[in-house]
Design goal:
The complex is a heterodimer of chains A (about 270) and B (about 325). Helix content of chain A is about 85%, strand content about 0%. Chain A has about 270 residues and is mostly helical. Chain A has one domain. In chain A, helix 3 packs antiparallel against helix 4 (about 100-135) and helix 4 runs parallel beside helix 8. In chain B, strands 1-4-3-2-6-5-7 form a 7-stranded mixed beta barrel. Chain B is of the alpha/beta class and about 325 residues long. The chains are: A mainly alpha (about 270), B alpha/beta (about 325). The interface of A and B includes residues 67, 172, 173, 202 and 203 of A.
């Protein structure tokens, strides 16, 4: 698989039609590859064999390891969003009584998951891609194949499960921190009482369900995209670097695409 | 602390945070709820799940919005277009009375629509579970805007079609204001005096009315009124016997006339005619006497001049005094 990709990338297109055709083929192949990794991951989630403590180690690395970074990032994001919302509200209607309610709705329905998943993707996605890519370039995955073991089962599945669970956990905790920091900013900058700010009247169960669905999806997307890029690494340490970059870019792109799809589904099934 | 425990702790924290969030979202650990139906013709922008408030306290939520299409409800005898089912927490449900007013409002100008309940008077019985109330429809802003737009259109058309008339009207009004200003400026002193006079007149009128009031309520008027009252009472008391006597006298006169013969009646009529003639003559004599007296009072004629003219009176008096001292002048002229 790795050799075929390298050959396809090495072949130069002759004219514009060839360029378009090769690009289309490239994206089609990428999507097919992603779907293949994802389906095999789901299969091995049910039927696979894992070493004891493998998933826990990955959960610790993805969840506990990202917690401080995510809390700080989400605190800043919450503060910025609350401050900007307050400023805009002040310009239009100088009534801050619903600032908290709208902030909470926006955060829970969308921003905690979608904006929080981006820094998570940079840290977790890069880690997964670098780790698996290093194994690929040092031919450890070839050794697994020679042992009749699928690298997806041994390398991707623990990271996928850990990313789905701990991505959701980290985003929940980070979201709480973001809400708290937003509440502080609203209190200090706009004199909004914390009780007034924590107004859940505009939130619905649909908002929470949609937010959780996004967190789970983004966690899985980061793991699948980063693992797929890691498994396609070639060319030594430079290839690992390229795979890491592509993993972050691909994860962010995947998050944006899923954001669009899930928001559209949520608009239809779970209206705000 | 092992790696698994640390991961578990983090998951527990996240689950606890999510649990708190879900509990807060549900408005805290809720108790039993009761159902209340509200009939509307147009409930505005109320959606399912919208809050229900009593005195700005959230007491429930909109559970279902049912379109009835004006179907007659035999229980209430009404034909509502929309029926909304509310779930109210039991602890608040008892405060809602049968005369409760239910209306649609919003948290702010652009806020979420909600159902607000004014619980009604405490002397009325509380509503039962499943009771149906009639809601007050919110104002139709779209209709208001449409009417306002039509009004503005009409005003614009009026201004556009009557520009010349309006210009002349405004010019005339401006001239009138200028004229009035000139009048007030030129005759400010006189206007002040007029106002002072009016003030004085009103003060005097007040005093006059006060005095008149005192007079009316005073003892003399009261006494007069009592006397008049007494007189009218006496008249009322004596009028019937007097009328009876008058009727009796008239009857007797009729009898007397019936007893007289034609010759005697003729004599009486002749006598009456003579008396009438005499009275006419007496009247003429009296009028002549009055004319003479008037003549004398006006100093006309010899007697009048003697009586009324001071100078003649003085001359006569002087002559009489002179005659008293010199009686020979009656016989001998100097």
């Amino acid at each position: 698989m790795t050799t075929a990709t390298a050959e396809s990338q090495a072949s130069e297109p002759d004219d514009l039609d060839d360029v378009e055709e090769s690009q289309l083929e490239f994206y089609a192949r990428e999507i097919k590859d992603l779907v293949g990794v994802f389906s095999r991951t789901l299969y091995y989630c049910v039927r696979g064999k894992r070493e004891k403590g493998d998933i826990a180690a990955q959960m610790y690395a993805i969840g506990n390891g990202s917690m401080f970074f995510m809390c700080v990032t989400m605190a800043f994001i919450g503060a910025i969003v609350a401050y900007q919302m307050g400023l805009q509200t002040k310009k239009i209607i100088p009534d801050m009584s619903l600032l908290g309610a709208t902030f909470l709705k926006l955060q829970v329905r969308d921003l905690i998951a979608s904006v929080g998943a981006m820094p998570l993707a940079t840290r977790v996605g890069a880690g997964i891609a670098a780790e698996i890519g290093s194994m690929v370039v040092t031919e450890q995955t070839d050794a697994l194949r020679m042992s009749a073991a699928d690298p997806v089962d041994f390398l991707v599945v623990p990271r996928f499960i850990a990313s789905v669970i701990m991505g959701t956990v980290v985003l929940c905790v980070g979201g709480g921190v973001g809400i708290f920091s937003g509440m502080l900013v609203a209190m200090v900058s706009f004199d909004v009482n914390p009780n007034t700010f924590l107004n859940f009247s505009m939130l619905t169960s649909g908002d929470v369900i949609l937010g959780l669905l996004k967190m789970v999806t983004y966690g899985g997307t980061i793991a699948i995209v980063s693992s797929q890029r890691g498994l396609r690494t070639f060319g030594g340490s430079e290839g690992v670097g390229i795979a890491t970059t592509e993993a972050v870019v691909g994860s962010l792109f995947g998050i944006i695409v899923w954001q669009f799809i899930l928001s559209a589904i949520g608009y239809v099934l779970l209206p705000a | 602390m092992s790696l698994e425990v640390r991961v578990g702790l983090l998951i527990l924290v996240a689950v606890a945070l999510l649990g708190v969030f879900v509990v807060a979202l549900g408005g805290g650990p809720g108790g039993d709820v009761k159902t209340l139906y509200i009939d509307f013709d147009n409930p505005g922008n109320v959606l399912g799940g919208a809050p229900v408030n009593i005195g700005n306290i959230r007491v429930g939520r909109v559970e279902e919005i049912e379109y009835r299409g004006g179907l007659l409800d035999p229980d209430t005898g009404r034909s509502p277009l929309i029926r909304i089912r509310l779930q109210i927490q039991e602890e608040y449900f008892g405060s809602i009375r049968e005369d409760a007013r239910v209306y649609v409002t919003s948290t702010s100008i652009v806020g979420e629509s909600l159902i607000a309940i004014d619980p009604g008077s405490q002397d009325r019985p509380a509503v039962a579970d499943g009771h149906i109330l009639v809601g007050i429809d919110p104002p139709r802003m779209d209709q208001a805007f449409a009417m306002m737009f039509e009004l503005l259109e009409n005003i614009h058309g009026l201004l556009r079609d009557n520009r010349e008339e309006l210009d002349s009207l405004l010019s005339a009004a401006a001239n009138m204001v200028r004229s009035l200003d000139g009048i007030f400026t030129r005759h400010g002193d006189r206007i002040d005096r007029i106002m002072q006079n009016i003030e004085t007149a009103t003060d005097q009128t007040n005093d006059l009315l006060g005095n008149a009031n005192e007079l009316i309520t005073g003892p003399r008027v009261q006494r007069t009124l009592r006397n008049v009252d007494g007189i009218t009472s006496s008249i009322n008391r004596d009028i019937d016997p007097l009328l009876a006597d008058a009727r009796s006298i008239a009857g007797k006169v009729d009898d007397l006339l019936d007893m007289l013969g034609e010759e005697q009646q003729a004599q009486i009529q002749s006598t009456i005619a003579d008396v009438s003639d005499i009275s006419h003559r007496a009247t003429g004599i009296t009028q002549d006497a009055e004319q003479i007296v008037t003549h004398i009072r006006q100093g006309r004629g010899t007697v009048g001049a003697m009586l009324m003219d001071e100078e003649i009176y003085d001359d006569v008096q002087e002559m009489l005094r002179d005659l008293k001292h010199n009686p020979w002048k009656l016989f001998w002229r100097e």
